[in-house]
C-alpha cells in the first residue's frame, strides 16, 4: 500500500539553522540538496540568523524549493487520476441507471481540489507538503477501487446514489465508461503514491509527534462510521444497508478503507519530516471526505433518501484530523539536544493506561450486553389482525461472545492497577481480537436473517407475513467491535509510552524463537480449519465458505502472527505477556466446540480444535521460556550491580 511509505518521508532541516551537537549523529546535509553546507561555520557575513519565531512557523522546515523529477511524476499521475475521477461524474457508470441527483460538481470538487492543492504547494516551494498530500490520497485508493468493483459484480446492489440509482427493478446491469474512469482514477492515484514515496523516502530517525493517540482514534471512528448504512432509503429501488449486510466487493472495500485510515494516520505521524507528515494527514482527510461526503449529499438533495449518522460522523472525525494537520506536529520545538536529554520521559503514562483500561472495560460491557440482548427482532402480521406479534431471536454464538468479553475484562481491569499494568497491557493488546472473533460470529445470525427481507409465509394469502430487523444485541455487538479497535490502538500507544518512559535497554531473548514460530504457524492453521463438525452445518473459514465470521478469523490470525513477531523483538517480560495473549486467542477459538457447537447439538471435534490446542500449548511454552529468560537476566543484572 502506498501509505506504507509515509513513515519514510523526507527529513528536511531549516536552512541556516544552528548547528547540532556532534552527539546527535545526524548529518546536516539535506537529502537531494548536496549544495547545502554541513554547518553554519561558513555562513555569509551579514546574513541574519533565523529567529526562533521563524523556525516555529508552519512549514518552516520544508527547505526544498523545487520538486524532484520523481515527485513531478507523482504529481502528474495524481492530477490525471483526479481528472479521471471527476470525469466519472459526467460519464454514466452503467447504461442501466444514472446518478440520483446532480452530483458531478461535488464529485469534481472532491477529486480535483486535493490534486490542485498538491500541485500549488509544490510550485510554491513546498514540495514535501505536496508529496505528502499525494501519499495521503493514495492511502485509500486500493479500498476505493475494491468498493467500485461492485458496479461490475452486481450493480443493482450498490448503494452509490451519487453515481447509480435505478428507476426500475434490475437483476443485473452492464458497466459503462464511467466505471472504467473510476478504475483508472484509483489506479493512477495509487501509482502516484508509490512514486511519491520513492521520491520522499529516506532513513532518518522520525521526530516525536503530537496527537499520536488522538489522530488514529479519530481515524478508527471515521472508519467505523463508513461501515454503517450510507443512507436511509424510502426508495423501493435502493436497498440501503450496512457494509456487513452487503455483497463482498462493498464489504471488502469498506473494510480496506476502515483499516487504512488508522494505519495511514499512524504512519503519517511517524514521518521524519514535519511538512510530509502534515501533508499526508491532510491528504488522508481529503480522501476520506471523498468517500463520506457523497452519501450525505444524497440524503440532503433527495426527498426519498435521508442522512445517517455514520457518514456524518466520519466527516466530523476527518475534519478534526484535517484541523490537527494544520498545527505543528513535532514536540518540543526549539529545544536543544541537551534540553531533550533532561526531559526524555513522556509524561502522562497514568492517563494512557487509564484510557486503555476504560476502553477495554467498555468493550467488554458492550459485548456482554450484545451477548444477552436479542440479535433479531421478528414481527408477524396474521391476516385480519390489527396488531402485529413480535418475537426475538438470539445467536447460537452468544455464549462465545460472553466468554470473549470476560477474557478481555480481566486484563482491562489489570491495566487500571499500577502493580499489574505493565503485564496486563500487552495481554489486552492481543485479547481485543477475541471480541472481533466472537462478535462477527454473533452478527452473522442477525445479518443472515435480515438479508432475507420480508418473507411471505407458506400457504397462500392466508399465511402470516414476517419481517426481520436487527435487534438491540446486534447494535451493541457492533459497538463492541468499534470499541475493541479503539482499545487496540490505545494499548499500542500505551506500549510506546511505557517503553520510552522505562528506558530499559534489555536485549530481546531469541532462545524461544522455535516455539514462537511453531505457535504462529499452528495458530494460522487453527483459525483456517473448523473447530467442530455438525451434520448439515458448514462453518465459515479462511480458505473456503467465506462469510461474516471469516473476518473475525482473519483478524484473530493476523493479531496472533503480529503478536508473535513482536514478541521476538521485545524484552522478556512484555514478550511473555504478548504470547500469553496470543495463547488466549487460540484457546478461545478451541472453546467454540462447547460454546457454539454445544448449542447446535451433535457437535464433534474437528481438525481445527486439535490444532488450536497445539498452538495454545506452543505459545504458552514460549511464554514460559520468555519469563524464565527474564528471571535469569534480572539475576545477571543484579550480580553485575553487586560486582565492584
Give your account of this protein's structure.
By secondary structure, this protein is mainly α. The chain has three domains: 69-201 and 208-326, no CATH class; 348-503, Up-down Bundle (Butyryl-CoA Dehydrogenase, subunit A, domain 3), CATH 1.20.140.150; 506-633, Up-down Bundle (Butyryl-CoA Dehydrogenase, subunit A, domain 3). 59% of the residues lie in helices and 5% in strands. The chain is built from 21 helices and eight strands. The chain has helices spanning 52-55, 69-87, 104-123, 127-139, 141-148, 150-154, 177-200, 214-226, 248-269, 274-301, 309-325, 337-342, 349-372, 398-415, 421-451, 472-502, 513-528, 548-567, 572-590, 592-600, 607-642, and strands at residues 231-233, 305-307, 376-381, 389-393, 455-456, 465-470, 532-533, 604-605. A four-stranded antiparallel β-sheet has the order 4-3-6-5. A hairpin with an 8-residue loop joins strand 5 (455-456) and strand 6. Helix 15 packs antiparallel against helix 18 (548-567) and helix 17 runs parallel beside helix 19 (572-590). Residues 32-42 have a biased composition (Polar residues).
